[in-house]
Design a protein that fits this description.
heterodimer; A: 206 residues; mainly alpha; Rna Polymerase Sigma Factor, Chain: A; Arc Repressor Mutant, subunit A; 2 domains; 8 helices; 67% helix; elongated; B: 345 residues; alpha+beta; Jelly Rolls; Phage tail protein beta-alpha-beta fold; 3 domains; 13-stranded mixed sheet; three-stranded mixed sheet; 34% helix; 32% strand; globular; transcription regulation (chain A); sigma factor (chain A); RNA_pol_sigma70_r4_t2 (chain A); transmembrane (chain A); membrane (chain A)
Chain lengths: 206, 345
Amino acid sequence: MNRKFTAYTDAALWQAFKDGDEEAFDFMFEKYVQVLYNYGRKFTAVPEIIEDCVQDLFVELWEKKKLLSPTDSIKFYLFKALRIRIIRRLSKDHTFGKEGIDSDVYNFAITLSYESKLISQQQDTHQQKLLTQAVNQLSKRQKEAIHLKYFDNLSYVEIAGIMAISVDSVYKLISGALAQLKKHMRQVYISLLWSSSLIYFLLYLS
Amino acid sequence: MSYTHYQAEDFAADEFFIRWVKTPDSETEAFWQEWIQTHPAQADTIREARELVGLLETNKDFPTAGQINRMRQHIHSRTGRAGKVISMPQKQADQIARPWYQSWQKLAAVFLAFLSCSALIWLGINRFTKVAYHTAYGQIQTIQLPDGSMVTLNANSVLRYSRTWDGTRDREVWLEGEAFFDVKHLKTHNRFLVHTQDNLTVEVLGTTFNVFERKSGTRVVLQTGKVKLNIQQGQKQEQVLMQPGEQVELVEKTGRYAKKKVNTQQALAWKAHKLVFDNTSMAEIVAVLEENYGLHVTIASPELLQKKLVGSAPTHDVDVFLSALAKSFNLKINRNGKEVSIAGP
């Protein structure tokens, strides 16, 4: 990556790109390609679709650079533009897709994981199943809001803009999802409590 | 903002709380630690909220280096710049090319580890957790460790150690801030290790020494005995042996260091709630006010920062300290809450 641009604000970088600076354009691509692709892949399991959408997005940006309005959050701009592109593409690919353009043609699939410094060999598929169940019970919009908030660290206002809903709706999606996950987290603890007391009981017997 | 009636999910959805859990900095750390201390009944809620935020680490589907290259080349050729393909640094490409399932398995294992650990905490079996002591701004605390070693923890500092000190392994503690250690030598010759957030670990058998690791710098002062410093310099580790009366100071984050003789009485005066100035610059005193008392200091003229002071002042009460400072060195000091302004005579 070109170090020259790391100190630029988003507004300045965007302006440089709009003025036709190829290095600024390349820098934007290198900086955001990973998170954009990562976000896109949650909509579909087909990598080629997302590759196409990401490269089409950047090609169009370059071609229309003079016409674009200024922005002070490039990440927000790119996420929003990519999302529109992916949903449009998926509804085009969807052969029976007369009824719902935005609603049924796409999914949003995430799995949750926890990165902790403590590493143990212990594996328990039951607990994993409980968590997968909990996540599967969330709506795709809840999952998308969760991903944008906690993986991509976007603000509530930005998420509302990307998903084309109100800020209040984003709050509701996320707090609803959290309340559900909290309930399941407690179930996981209880199940662990059972399995660990069983182990202690067996140890006691032996 | 009032957090009094928040549930775990409300905290976990709060942007300032998320910032604290995911990328803690001095602002969020100071705020939330104080909040927890003033709302002890909410400790469980906070813990649960932290776990929720931790849980919300969604899976990574990053493109491989090959995919990125393909996209980059498409973009370049379609924007009429095919000749100028920029290749990616190899190291970065390697990282991205790591197969997806490897990290997935690791994350799954780590996730299960987290679940079992939180369950144990929840059950009150704190075998895997660390004991933590936090001192507030302006507070000094003396702690006895399970092996009999004594630690004096200076203001705005955190000391952590594992509950499982059974005398068979190294004794390890983690320090943020400043502390004085009086380490007991064990018959089993177990090492005593002080880890800092910086690239520094202090290794000792039995001895007395001071560790300081804050924004303004990182240094170790040895009073008695012998210690070995392990300093991480990029990939390699450098070991430095210290003699009593010496101070080793790290030069920024580079891993380089400077060793010199110091007056240990001065370096350790904070334990007696005193600050001794021995050609101490105003800049150093400002750092103490900000780091130990959480104050925000503005100085009337930059030359004042270079002023060297000789003498001492009591530190048990910040106002007494400030007025002693003002009187002894003929300064005008005004304090308004957390804001302090210092002007010359």
